[in-house]
Amino acid sequence: VAFMKQHPKVESILFPLDESFPQYALAKQQMKGACGLFTFVLKDPDRDPIVRFCESLQHIMMAVSWGGHESLVIPKCAGIRPADYDPSNKEHRYIRMYCGLEAADYLINDLEQALDSRNT
């Protein structure tokens, strides 16, 4: 979450235990910790760069699941017909990520190379 939050191509993060989360105080009050599930939004509102980012990941698979031991991503736009995609609707731009058991540096390196590729 910290890496994604500081990256210039990331607009926002949704994670209950991040201080910028709207209900952070409530999350701290009700939760002792959090799992590796969070959502982020890229600054580019177009559908194609979102899909290309997910497809550029080399070690994080694009799939629908909590993943168990494997890290996964799924863009919300994967479930929205291209004709119905609305770039002004921030929820259409959500990318959900589940962090599995891989080392943090392994995941960060993969996210970084996908974000920094010419395709996103």
Can you tell me about this structure?
It is built from four helices and five strands. It is an alpha+beta fold and 120 residues long. Strands 1-2-5-4-3 form a five-stranded mixed beta sheet. The longest helix is centred in the last third of the chain and has 13 residues, at 104-116. 18% of the residues are buried.
Keywords:
120 residues; 29% helix; Aspartate Aminotransferase, domain 1; 5-stranded mixed sheet; 4 helices; alpha+beta
How do the strands of the widest beta sheet line up side by side?
A: 1-2-5-4-3
Q: Helicity range of the residues?
A: 25-40%
CATH architecture: Alpha-Beta Complex
Multimeric state: single chain
Please give the alpha-carbon distance between the first and last residues: 19 Å
- Kindly state the number of beta strands: 5
Summed up, what is this model?
The protein has 120 residues and is of the alpha+beta class. It has helices at 2-6, 24-30, 47-56, 104-116; strands at 10-14, 37-42, 61-62, 72-75, 94-98.
